[in-house]
Amino acid sequence: MLARFRFDATIIKWRGPAPYLFVPVPDEFAGEIRYAARIVSYGWGVIPVEATLNAVAFTTSLFPRGDTYLLPVKMAVQREARVGLDDDVAVVIEIRAR
Length: 98
Description:
Layout: E1 3-10, E2 21-24, H1 30-40, E3 47-53, E4 56-65, E5 68-73, H2 75-81, E6 88-95
Antiparallel strand pairs: 1-6, 2-5, 3-4, 3-6, 4-5
Protein name: DUF1905 domain-containing protein
Organism: Sphingomonas ginkgonis
InterPro entries: AF2212/PG0164-like_sf, DUF1905
């Protein structure tokens, strides 16, 4: 495992593919994520991750936004975790070498 982060955040809406909502990753983790991206990114700075949101595990990819990253939360995960826009969530992100 290259990196593991645990944090609380609020779900936001951002222009992007519907029906996704997003969790902004705290700035304090951006440097370590950028470092891991050099190893695992498959283009455009997108980083494959394993994530857990309110105890619901899923795979997705972080993508850069400004100086940090966004974690996309697809509708199926939103339903299973029973979360939506502006909800506070507990998040764990794991970045693994391929």
